[in-house]
Amino acid sequence: MNFTKATAAISIITIVLLIGSCSEQQPKNIVVELPNKKLRQSSLVVLGTIQDAGSPQITCKKACCEDLFENPDPSRKVVSLGLIDIPNNKTYLFEATPDMGSQIKKLTQLEQNSKEEMVDGIFLTHAHIGHYTGLMFLGKEAMDAKQIPIYAMPRMKIFLETNGPWSQLIVRENIAINALQKDSTIQLSNELSVTPFLVPHRDEFSETVGYKIQGPNKSALFIPDIDKWEKWKKDIVAEIEKVDYAFLDATFFDGKELNNRDISQIPHPFILESLEKFKNLSQKEKQKIIFIHFNHTNPVLDSTSEAYKLVTQLGFKIAQINEQFEL
């Protein structure tokens, strides 16, 4: 599909979405099956793709949610990536979500030595509910963990240290916070490193970061939350060119998706805006982009929708639970 045709398709799809987004039919999801064999190479694993509040979302009465309250979809996990360090038998989690228990179990099952079923560290991006509240399961009411390494930026670290119940995790030594600095690389092994970088987002309680994850052969960007690409001091197109995978914020498909909220108060790059921004990329560059962090209303969650078809036909990817990306 050339872009002229794609633009026309976008206009048509937008009109359709204005009429019936998240209201016409139950979504059809894709669940990637986990391999029977252990991974041979250090990899990233998609452990969740959904925006903070989950899916179904509280009080939602639309068709995209209604049936899911009675029949939960196991693929609807809050956004998270797992990092598997094969040579060193270690695993790391990006984001501590409300679904962290099942996400850690799935991640450690893929690792060579998963007896303890616990990760070797958790990287946090910011203090919004879907990205850190899973830490509660490390406390005395649940696991009562012992000094699990938590990687956090300065304001995020202070937020955890000075607010309950998170401060209790520190006092009881359930967690041990490793302070991050923007653009300063953490070396996890000889072949794996992680670098945080600041992105503009609604920083009420902490700064917000994305991560560059460098493996032995390939690298990835992880930016689950950002206000708008234009607000960032860096050029997202240039940053995509430097890596092999780019997991990017795709919370909403378009600006009319929510009809009961002021969307200007919860800015994110609409998928339609990203399609326009990335339209001149080569097919090779487009294939690096994996959209993630979908609101429950986002029509791309339905693999049969016109929105999903448009995004994938243009050469971009929609993140799917359990997908693996070798590093």
Features:
alpha/beta, seven-stranded mixed β-sheet, 10 helices, 14 strands, 25% helix, disordered N terminus
CATH architecture: 4-Layer Sandwich
Give a short account of the largest sheet: 7 strands, mixed
End-to-end Cα distance: 30 Å
What is the number of E strands?
14
Percent of residues in beta strands: 15-25%
Enumerate the spans where pLDDT stays under 50 for 5 or more consecutive residues. 1-20, 23-27
Strand-pairing-aware structural class: alpha/beta
The whole-angstrom Rg is 19 Å
Gross morphology: globular
**CATH topology-level name:** Metallo-beta-lactamase, Chain A
Task: Output the number of helix runs.
Answer: 10
Count of all domains = 1
Helix content: 10-25%
Mean pLDDT: 87
SSE order, as H and E? HEHEEHEHEHHEEEEEHEHHEHEE
CATH C-level class is Alpha Beta
Q: Give the full name of the CATH homologous superfamily.
A: Ribonuclease Z/Hydroxyacylglutathione hydrolase-like
Strand order of the largest sheet: 6-5-4-3-2-1-14
Report on this structure.
The chain is α/β, with parallel strands linked by helices and 327 residues long. The chain has one domain: Ribonuclease Z/Hydroxyacylglutathione hydrolase-like (Metallo-beta-lactamase, Chain A), CATH 3.60.15.10. Helices cover 25% and strands 19% of the residues. The strands form two sheets. The protein has a seven-stranded mixed sheet with strand order 6-5-4-3-2-1-14. A seven-stranded mixed sheet has the order 7-8-9-10-11-12-13, with helices on one face. A hairpin with a 5-residue loop joins strand 7 and strand 8. The longest helix has 18 residues. The protein is globular, with a radius of gyration of 19 Å. The two termini are 30 Å apart. The N terminus is likely disordered.
